[in-house]
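We modelled the chain as a single entity of 385 amino acids. Its sequence is:
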Amino acid sequence: MPTSTTNRLNNDEKALIWKAYQDRKPTRVPVRLYTNPRVVLLNEQWNPEGFTFQQVTEDPKLHIEISLRHSLYRRTVLNHYTDEPTGLPEFWDVELMIYNIYEAAMFGAPIDYLPQQVPDTKVCLTDENKLEIFKQDISNPLESPFIKHWLDFNRQMMEIARDMTFEGRPVRVMPWSICGTDGPVTVAMNLRGPQFMEDMIIEPAYADRLMRWIMQAAINRRAAFESYWGDRIGHGNGMADDSVAMLSTQMYEQQVLPIHRMFYEAVSSDRPRCMHLCGDVTRHFSLIHRELGVTSFDTGFPVNFGQLRNQLGDDVEILGGVEVAKLMNGTADEVYQRTRDILQTGVMRGGRFIMREGNNLPPNCPLENLEAMYQATLEFGKYDQ
């Protein structure tokens, strides 16, 4: 397998960048990349056998293998262009990954394995059966056949990895949980398809009932997993809802915000609130911050970072960066200039900005473009001491 030999900072120097950021005394904008195993599954050099998403999803041993390749790819290649650690870890921590199908599939949507794509689901709620979903019992999530299957899959992975080593390091399988949500609008779209946009206008009572049901299921699920695993998993308070990009701010405020509030207020107020929103949703951020108390936003594209900083103020964390299309198809010079331009918008004000791809790094991204984003941040992301 190919690995990169390029390195900018050693791991101790990188750790200091993160510590300074977390202590609210940043010296430079930190850089990270979000990836999932598709970056190796759809990379012929790292998946010469041609394993598919479906094969990995159905075989716990293969699931571990691909997860380990993903971690190795990050630590020996991608992390040279981030402030995440490089080299081999003390332990390999393996996670069960079922992508963004979990909520719709849990509620009965058939899984669709499209060629060369992450798993998806098919629409399952038509006008004829759209009320059937409310017959499902969401009061005891761990009894859901879907969740029971994946908890058992997770246990099988733990057993397989018990005495396993990879690259001379022991392997640990982490507890699997679903404590967040892809959001009531997005999940409703998964279940109903584009028809749900009409529901919100023509049948708002049904749309409201479906979104509240989806959100209550997420609340119950988080509570169940936190009770089941205890301190072995993180206890956060974050969610996504990418499909709100299709709504006006007025429509979002009236029909969706109260349902988002349900999720955030279901746990203690001392948990920091975060939200991931892809798409053109800058118009919603200030309302979400003001009304829901969200203090960390993970963005996609397009984003006007200077405008967003002005709207949110200096104390709100913003994650974002060069659009994935430019990272994939642009030149290194174009990526360097785009990174510089983002850093010079004023988004660094307050020291609460993390540079990352916008959003979710695709497979086979040119490494020279990742290096250009990192190099520009090293040069233009410094704070005055």
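As a brief sanity check on the tokenised model: The chain has 15 helices and ten strands. The radius of gyration is 21 Å.
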